[in-house]
Amino acid sequence: MRITKLLRTPAAYSIIASMLFVSVQAPALADVVGTKELTMQAQLQVQRNDVRDLIAREDVRAGLLGYGVNPADIDKRIDSLTTSELLQIQNQLGVLPAGADGVLGVVLTLILIFVLLDVLGATDVFPRI
Amino acid sequence: MRFKLLLLLAFASLLSACLSAPQSAALVQQADFKFPNPEVLESLPFFSQSAYQCGPAALATMLVYSEVDVSPEDLVPLVYVPARKGSFQFEMVAATRSYERLAYHLEPSLNAVFEEIKAGHPVLVLQNLGLSWYPRWHFAVVKGFDLGREKIILNSGTFENYEMPLTTFELTWARAEYWAMLSLEPGVMPISAEPESYYLALAALEETQPQANISAAYRSGLQAWPSNQNLLMGYGNLLYQEGNSAEAATRFREVIKYHSNFAPAWNNLAQILLEDGDVAQARTAVDRAIALDGPFVDIYRETLAKIEAAK
Predict the structure, then answer these.
(1) Share of chain B above pLDDT 90, in %
(2) Is the CB of A46 less than 8 angstroms away from the CB of B199?
(3) What is the complex's ipTM, to 2 decimals?
(4) What is residue B209's three-state secondary structure?
């Protein structure tokens, strides 16, 4: 039997598949939790804290209450936001100035938070989305 | 006539309303006990910028001060974007790291800037010399200050020792969202350092330039914050990578001492115990990690599998 033919038998397929599986598995056998992974977690924590700081701001709290959303409810939800959702909110933080001038920025950010929270099922501000 | 005067007054009050510089005002008030004397970093080099190239000139100023052998011309390909006639902040950060220097983001505080100057660290700042709707971005290096005269001293563009009224500086800096960065030799601590920001700056340097003197940076950080979880973990991992398992285990044990619920430390300790042949203790440690759970639980299970195989 020629080798190419051998390779086409069902048994060969399953062996090749299992070899592929092994070679994919091998690099995942990390012995320690590396600094890179820990840093990603630390960054996530920083982002969560940034959003917490945002929610704690007086003007934002007032805005949230105005929409009938309890800031404490959002606080509970921050831990369940994914990395990309956190990143989206954080990108909006730059648009949100500290004074009363940035009404548009405030509104934008609030809408963003609400949309995310709607997806999570915490609020129902935009039922049509 | 009277109407015109009124209009002028109204316009002036409008202007002063948007031109507030609260940080400068607070600092000038506290000058006597916080920063009573002018401070100037006399040895800060000066590179006059060529057209639009404030980025390379300012960054060279920072790097040469921290004993890197570099010229603005060397930096042009790294940080200058011809189409934008300027440089981006993230490129300044990345270029700083590529010369094995710690790029530390300063908090948005003039007080922190002055503390750093006092400690001998020049500060790279981004300013918007125009207006928010008509920006003119500019990188400069803070070289000193004189609060008695309400001035800040910069090496900026084509001017060495450029004195700017403090309030004007604050306004231009605020329009650039108070962006400020230090460029430090690993091991030198920012005087205003926060453990979180310091660790992130250090981890970024370690990831991109592992050959830099990372361990010196960990040691200084741990001197300032001996129980810091991230720094202890990072230093432990570095020691482990270098083959110094005994010292690494000590760091992981310290993490456990201060933060007994931090699972990765239990896992990493278990790995070293296993390598040392202490299977029973390794098992106890990894069981603890698995019980604590968390995002890395798959790694703990792998460690457990290896421990069970070793029996």
Answers:
(1) 79
(2) no
(3) 0.77
(4) coil
Residue B127 token pair: 């300013």
* 3-state class percentages of chain A: helix first, strand second, coil last, to nearest 5: 70, 0, 30
Lookup: tokens for B300: 């703990």
Q: B234 CA to chain A: closest CA distance, Å?
A: 5
Residue found under tokens 């969202």: B177
Look up tokens 């929270």; give the residue.
A117
Chain-centre distance of CA B131, in angstroms? 27
**Interchain CB distance below 8 Å, B268 and A29:** no
Contact between B232 and B251 (Cβ < 8 Å): yes
In the stretch 6-65 of chain A, residues with CB closer than 8 A to chain B read: 28-39, 41-43, 46
Cα–Cα distance, B53 to B73 (Å, whole number): 10
Q: What residues in A contact B234, CB-CB < 8 Å?
A: 35, 38-39
B88 CB burial (10 A radius; 0-12, 13-18, 19+) = middle
CA distance A37 to chain B (A): 9
Tell me, yes or no, if the pTM score tops 0.80: no
Question: pLDDT tens for residues B267-297?
Answer: 999 999 999 999 999 999 999 999 999 989 9
Return residues 77-116 of B near A (CB < 8 Å): none
* C-alpha–C-alpha distance, residues B292 and A121, integer Å: 28
Of A29, A36, A41, nearest to B295 by CB-CB distance is: A41
The Cα–Cα gap between A84 and B306 comes to 34
Q: In angstroms, rounded to a whole number, what is the distance separating the alpha carbons of residues B121 and B192?
A: 11
Separation CA B139–CA B134 (nearest Å): 17
Specify the DSSP class assigned to residue B153: E
Distance from CA of A36 to the nearest CA of B (A): 7
Contacts with A94 from chain B: Cβ below 8 Å: 177
Instruction: Give the containing element (helix H, strand E) for B183.
Output: strand B180-184
φ/ψ of residue B161, rounded to 5:
55, 45
B263 to chain A: closest CA residue: A33
Contacts of B293 in chain A (CB under 8 A): none
What are B256's two structure tokens?
């456990």
Task: Please choose, from the candidates A87, A129, A99, A98, the residue with its C-alpha nearest in 3D space to the C-alpha of residue A111.
Answer: A129
Cβ neighbors of B78 (< 8 A, separation 6 or more) are B56, B91, B94, B95, B98
